[in-house]
Fold this sequence. Notes:
CATH topology of the largest domain: DNA polymerase, domain 1
Number of strands: 5
Bound molecules: FE2/S2 (inorganic) cluster
Shape: globular
Amino acid sequence: SLAKVSLKVNGKACDLELDTRTTLLDALREHLHLTGSKKGCDQGQCGACTVMVNGRRINSCLTLAVMQQGSEVTTIEGLGTPENMHPMQEAFVKCDGYQCGYCTSGQICSAVAVLGEIKEGIPSHVTEDLMKPPSWDSSEIRERMSGNLCRCGAYSNIMEAITQVAG
Ligand code: FES
């Protein structure tokens, strides 16, 4: 069945009428033509579809668009433009943080959110010790980025880019 969904995507109000089974990823890609977010697995295992919803990263293939009614969504297209890149996008270019580029949008959205999580003191859900205060060390960043796979294996350059932005 169809449902009306209102989202704010990259600062713009979007009113959609969607099949209730439409994922946020398909709503972005197929209905809003924001194809920067990629579909790698469509089942929450690769991170290529990572976007930010209300400031938190999410695998957009794992949530239905209707569940995000009223949410603010930021995709790679909203982070920056080729003329005016986000610092994380600049760092990925500078450090060659990609090879084929398929995972890059998800890597960058995740990386921006990871630095926000650490800054806000949000514990990593994958860390063994939930009471451990978040830190800026590269092993913690690597752990928090572990949901974003890169089949080309550009991990060391991706880490270089993120740690440069982390400062
Ligand atoms: Fe969503 Fe792989 S496409 S996690």
